[in-house]
Every structure is written in C-alpha cells, then in structure tokens.
Amino acid sequence: MIHDDLPLIDLHRHLDGNVRLSTILDLGRKHNIALPADTLEGLRPHVQVTEPQTDILAYFQKFSIMVSIFADYDACRRVAYENVLDAFAEGIDYIELRFSPWFMAEPHHLDPVGVVEAVVDGVHAGIAEVEETQVNLLGIISRTYGMDIAHKELDALLAYKENIVGLDLAGDEANYPPDLFIPHYQKARDAGWGITVHAGESAGPESVWHAIKDLGASRIGHAVNIMGDEALIDFMREKSIGIEANLTSNVHTNTVPSYEAHPLKKQLDLGLLATINTDDPGISPVTLRYEFEVAAKMAGLTAEDTRKAQENAVKVAFLSEEDKQELLEKKAAHCW
C-alpha cells in the first residue's frame, strides 16, 4: 500500500523506456517509420510485455521499436515532456528520470549533445506545467557500447551538467563490468553528481562490490543478487547504500523467477535502504501505484514494509537534506 503521509517517489525510471504507445504511433506516422502495426492494440504486444521473457537481453529487444521514433530532437523533447506529465498523473511527488543520450541518438544518427538539450528542455516544459511533481534528471552511460563511446556519452551529459543530478551505468552488466568505467565515474564525481549503478541484476555480488568500491555508487539499481554475500549486505547497511528495486521489471526480465522469490522483503527486513520503483513502464506496463499496491503484495511486503520503502526513498534520493525536509513538510501539510 501507499502511505499518503509520505512522499510517493520513483528513483529508477528510464525516460527512454517510458514512451506512450500513442506517441510511438504518432511519431511513426510523422516520420514514415515502419511499425509492425498501425493501432494501439496491434502495436502493444510488439512493445510491451506482460509475462516473463527468457532473459534480460530478450527484454531489451522490446526497446527497438520504442527508440526507433527518436527521429529528431523534437521527438526527444516530446517524450521527456510526456514523462513528466505521466509522473504527475500517477500522483508522484518526486521522480528521478534517467536517460541514455547515445541510446536515443543512435537510430537516427542524432548528436547526443542535442539529445541532452532536448530532454532537458522537455523536462523543464513539463515541470512548468505540473509544478506539483518535482523532477530531477540522471544521465546514463550505456556500457554495451564500450568504453570509448561511454566517454562521448558522458561528455554530452557534462555539457548540461547543471541540469543533471546523477550518473547511472546501464546495459549489458555481465560483459561490461563496472571497473571498466572508473575514469568515467571520476569525472562524474568531480561534477558533483550522485552515483548509481545497475549491478547485481545479471551478474553476482562482485559486480555490486565494484560499483561501490570502484565507481563510488551510493545507490545500486536492482541488486537482486546480493543475498548470498553477508559481508556485502553488512557493508551496504553500514554505508547506507540505497537499493532501487523494480519488482515487475525483475519478473519480466526473468532476473527473479516470480514476485514471491524477489529478495526485496528480505532486504527491508535486514535494514537495507531498499526502495520501490518502476524501471521501464513503457515496456512493463505498470505504474508506481501498481508496484506498491499489487506487485509489493505479491512479493510478500506488508504495510510496514511499503512504509519503510517510502521512507528509504526520501533518505537516498539525490536531493539536499534541505530539499528532503521540504518534500516531507510539503506532503505533511497536504495531508492536513
């Protein structure tokens, strides 16, 4: 359940994994992009999943149609803008939207710097329209492209570093471990950004250790594969390392075999700073409310557990202590 006296927060949502089906159709027609269907219901099974895939790479294939519509900078701007409106419609008080400029630029050979500019513009336009939802941007390095492209992607993000609060590392974790990206993350820390890393999703605890020790991560995306390493669990608890859990996404990618098998309940019981998030709502068609009220229940979470998750999200958000307090006070005043 959602506790209305606390802020509703999503810390792990991919902007480029949350494109409306109607927008895909509209931009497909506008730019003469070949799509597998010309109706919402016809397109849905080609983009969205409702049951587990064979593995995470099979899940990633669903992105191909979604990113194909980033034909120009206006398309990037529109999707960013709509992400803010979608968050507001879900009743989210604070959201961190993350995106990979290279991933968005690649299908139509856009300039990644132009993509970053368009995303920043779109988010600002959305915020101006729905001031009730607070939004911050995280940049992503797509590890799958390799270290050299990662430098170019990082440079594009750094061109707008004042509009971005954190850096993430996403993509093929098994073949591109965190320690390959130490120089990139040094630059990110020098920029004053918060550090999060996809780790412990398709690789084991060693990936999480590297993310924390080598890259300076204060949050870990997914972290489902940490449970066998007691030293890592103790370290994460002692150092207040946040966990960005994504229940439905982890089931859909076959990272966990079922909701019941998800480690989130155990992580909360162990005092880890685990949170509940949506990941790619354009592919796994969920809302944050669904994750709290349906997925969390299937994963065995109690009302006390979801309260902890909401409290944890405030603690590990990439916000100043003053901004966190303001967020809490704003929510408390609204409840009264």
Explained architecture:
It is a single chain. It is built from 16 helices and eight strands. With 336 residues, it is α/β, with parallel strands linked by helices. The chain is globular and about 50 Å long. Strands 1-2-3-4-5-6-7-8 form an eight-stranded parallel sheet. Helices cover 48% and strands 13% of the residues. It has a single domain (9-335), classed as Metal-dependent hydrolases (TIM Barrel).
Give the helix/strand layout.
Elements: E1 9-14, H1 21-30, H2 40-47, H3 56-60, H4 63-68, H5 73-89, E2 94-99, H6 101-105, H7 112-129, E3 134-142, H8 147-158, E4 166-170, H9 182-190, E5 194-199, H10 205-213, E6 219-222, H11 230-238, E7 242-245, H12 247-252, H13 264-269, E8 273-276, H14 288-298, H15 303-316, H16 321-335
Parallel strand pairs: 1-2, 2-3, 3-4, 4-5, 5-6, 6-7, 7-8
Helix pairs in contact: 5-7, 7-8
